[in-house]
Amino acid sequence: MSGPMSYGAARTIAYHMGRTYDVLILDLSDVPLMGVTASLTIEAEIRAARHRQGKIFIVGAQSQVRERLRRFHVQDVLPAENFLPSCYHALATASALLNSAAEPALSVPASARLDCGSR
Question: What is the pLDDT of residue 105?
């Protein structure tokens, strides 16, 4: 994701986060600002993912975004170790998590794969 996150972005977040998954990586490295609706959406979806036993990693949250997530108590429902500095850290962590699971690793459709770019 890139650019400021507001209501429109929150709808997209809810759509993707509402799907069934084992691991979701939310890369916020290029998100300078986050609106209230997007923050509330992320918090609600993290709570739902915990109920479904899905894991969420937040990558690269900058100061304003991190503060907004803190104000909406996202850090109360997502452990500190789920906030990672880079997409590659998140992919390595997710891969290790999936490979250590009793079930086969998640097959990710090409349309849902992350483009980590230079991160």
Answer: 46
Whole-number pLDDT of residue 40: 83
Listed as ranges, residues in the chain with pLDDT below 50 are 104-113, 119
Q: What is the DSSP code string of 15-81?
A: HHHTS--SEEEEE-TB---B-HHHHHHHHHHHHHHHHTT-EEEEE---HHHHHHHHHTTHHHHS-GG
pTM of structure:
0.71
Number of domains in the chain: 1
Alpha-carbon distances, residue 9 vs 33, 56, 68, 112, 118 (angstroms): 12, 18, 15, 16, 23
Task: Tell me whether residue 1 is in a domain.
Answer: no
Residue 19 lies in a domain: yes
Question: What CATH number has the domain bearing residue 31?
Answer: 3.30.750.24
Which residues form the domain of 79? Answer: 7-105
